[in-house]
Design a protein that fits this description.
- The complex is a heterodimer of chains A (about 375) and B (about 240).
- Chain A is an alpha+beta fold.
- In chain A, about 40% of the residues lie in helices and about 10% in strands.
- In chain A, the strands form two sheets. In chain A, strands 3, 4, 5, 6 and 7 form a five-stranded mixed β-sheet that branches. A two-stranded antiparallel sheet of chain A has the order 1-2.
- The longest helix of chain A is centred in the last third of the chain and has 27 residues.
- The radius of gyration of chain A is 33 Å and the shape is elongated.
- By secondary structure, chain B is mainly alpha-helical.
- Chain B has a three-stranded antiparallel β-sheet.
- The longest helix of chain B has 29 residues.
- Classes of the chains: A alpha+beta (about 375), B mainly alpha (about 240).
- The interface between A and B is large, with 45 and 39 residues.
Chain lengths: ~375, ~240
């Protein structure tokens, strides 16, 4: 074997060794799931409590972390290698997962909130207490109730503590908790096509097919004022009429949701919104941002901005905010009716005052006769 | 029944006859003025004034709720709680009126009679729009069997049998939207229910103005109002 051949062989061997070592040090999820995919896997703690260590792959594969290619050891960062010759190939006691390592902004906001303050009362509320861990999903396309059920309602019973709030059940259904309890977070109204008779959301594909358009061409189809980024109230009504003509009689389900920003983690109790007039006013900033919201079959969200005046439209008949989304035309009609009654009464009274002398004279004549 | 005759000083003479609900009222000058008849039963009078007071509270709080950002009579929270409490008073009051009217037979006063209805409506309209300015007599005479003129009868029947029950029902639905959501959706959604409630609110506000004015069109401006306290109307 000459030097060239020997050199090549060395290089090839070194590369193979390097590749082999790098491949073997990156612990893949499949290795973890060899044990943790077994539903019977668990451990018994000193107090006799059974702690399941099962990770349901069917649930985990749809989690936001798995979808984004995050591996088990990216969160469980203290596992650097697996001792496959041991019963338990890693340390028995692992360090808590440091969510703040990736979610720094959220953690920073959380530190200012009431859940962090609970630690002074001996309660430690970790991120996973609200968010779970192996089943974290995006809530972008979730309704108010789904968002609350996944987090707030795990611990809280809002019905017990909001007796001051009129229509509290209605508020809990249509308004996300954080709208009031993280008031610095921007919010948005989502309008979704809803079938009142079947009590279900309409499939956006069916709605768009009825309109003869698709997700990309939807706004342009009804645009008449040159603003391609928003539907105004008239354009919105035209869209609803177009649907009615094609036999799709949909109403709209509207919800007030917080934007998914780090500030949403700064939960407050004492500074929570409690002034009804902040919301129940025509120019309330809570209704500045309104969007028509579609969730397609793949679970992707599509949002189309609409003018806030749409909330006063007759078409949005499954959502109403007293004082905030009232129909102004109705006010005009009512004031006209009341003022009309007042004017009619005043004119009649004036007529009687003016004709008073005439009646007196007639009475006197009748007495004389 | 013995007759008690009047004193010559011209004080009030009470004549007790087989009809104990009539008496003659004497003026100070000693002339018999008008015969008074017992028209409004006590339960009806109580119902009327409870209703009137409650309506005023509901109208005021209703205006505050609808125009929350422009008025500051109450906070929105207070206005809603007060509106709900008084609303239930109106519901209870209505049930009492219905029960009494049915039990006593007074309900027939609200049932329009088709006999000569068009002629009577015409006479009444002519009276209020023309005859009253000339000093004509009201074509309708108030009696216990027929205390409403034909226009009053139809208006009150519409209010008591249709509009007020509708206002009560829509108000109940708006009181607890989640509890009644199936019924609300059956009616077409919360906006329809609210629309009905608000339209009726404006109607009742306009009606109150007309009703207050028309109540002053008796023999004297306070005659009908006094009658609603005492029960006795002048013939």
């Amino acid at each position: 074997m000459n030097i060239m051949t020997h050199g090549c062989a060395t290089i090839i061997f070194s590369c193979t060794l390097l590749f082999w070592s790098s491949w073997s040090s990156a612990i893949g999820n499949n290795e973890c799931m060899e044990c943790h995919g077994d539903s019977s896997l668990g451990r018994t703690k000193s107090q006799g409590i059974n702690n399941s260590l099962f990770v349901d792959q069917k649930v985990f594969q749809y989690s936001i972390h798995n979808i984004n290619g995050i591996q088990c050891v990216d969160c469980h960062a203290d596992i650097t290698e697996l001792a496959t010759d041991q019963d338990v190939p890693h340390s028995l006691s692992l360090a808590p997962v440091n969510c703040a390592g990736c979610h720094e902004a959220e953690a920073s906001e959380y530190m200012k909130g009431v859940h962090q303050q609970a630690s002074s009362k001996g309660m430690t509320i970790q991120c996973y207490a609200c968010h779970g861990y192996h089943d974290v999903v995006s809530v972008e396309n979730r309704s108010v109730l789904e968002r609350e059920n996944r987090s707030c309602l795990k611990c809280h019973e809002p019905a017990k503590f909001h007796n001051w709030l009129p229509q509290k059940d209605t508020h809990f259904t249509f308004v996300q908790c954080t709208v009031c309890h993280a008031p610095e977070t921007p919010h948005r109204i989502h309008l979704r096509f809803y079938d009142l008779a079947k009590k279900e959301f309409l499939q956006p594909e069916a709605v768009l097919a009825a309109l003869g358009t698709d997700f990309d061409g939807f706004l342009a189809k009804f645009n008449t004022d040159g603003r391609a980024d928003e539907l105004n109230a008239e354009e919105f009504d035209n869209m609803v009429f177009a649907l009615n003509r094609r036999g799709v009689h949909a109403s709209f389900h509207a919800e007030l949701l917080s934007e998914r920003e780090p500030r949403i983690h700064q939960i407050t109790k004492v500074a929570a919104k409690r002034t009804c007039e902040d919301c129940h006013a025509p120019d309330s900033k809570f209704f500045e941002s309104v969007a028509l919201f579609f969730v397609d079959r793949d679970g992707r969200a599509h949002q189309y901005a609409v003018d806030r005046k749409v909330l006063e439209s007759y078409s949005v008949n499954n959502f109403y905010v007293p004082g905030g989304a009232r129909m102004r035309q109705l006010d005009m009609f009512g004031i006209f009716a009341v003022v009309g009654a007042g004017v009619g009464v005043t004119l009649h009274l004036l007529g009687r005052v003016v004709t008073g002398p005439l009646r007196k004279r007639r009475k006197a004549n009748e007495k004389g006769e | 029944m013995e007759n008690i005759t009047a004193f010559d000083t011209g004080e009030q003479e009470r004549v007790l006859s087989h009809d104990r609900r009539t008496f003659r009222k004497k003026e100070a000058v000693g002339n018999v003025k008008n015969k008074m008849r017992y028209i409004h039963h006590a339960p009806i009078r109580v119902w009327h004034w409870v209703n009137a007071t409650a309506f005023i509270f509901l109208l005021v709080t209703g205006v505050q709720i609808r125009f929350a950002e422009q008025l500051d009579w109450f906070s929105l929270e207070e206005a809603i709680h007060l509106h709900n409490y008084v609303g239930f008073m109106v519901i209870s009051n209505y049930c009492l009126w219905l029960f009494y009217s049915l039990a006593s037979g007074q309900i027939r006063l609200y049932l329009p009679s088709c006999k000569n209805m068009i002629r009577k409506i015409k006479e009444q309209v002519v009276y209020y729009s023309y005859g009253i300015f000339r000093g004509d007599h009201n074509p309708h005479a108030v009696t216990p069997e027929c205390k409403f003129n034909v226009m009053q009868q139809q208006t009150y029947a519409l209010i008591m049998f249709v509009l007020l029950p509708l206002q009560i029902v829509t108000g109940l639905f708006l009181w607890e939207i989640k509890r009644f959501e199936n019924y609300i959706q059956f009616m077409g959604g919360i906006r329809i229910v609210n629309l009905l409630h608000v339209v009726l609110f404006f109607f009742f506000a306009a009606f109150m103005i007309g009703h207050l004015y028309l109540s002053t069109l008796g023999h004297t401006p306070l005659a009908h109002i006094k009658a609603m306290f005492t029960g006795y109307e002048e013939e």
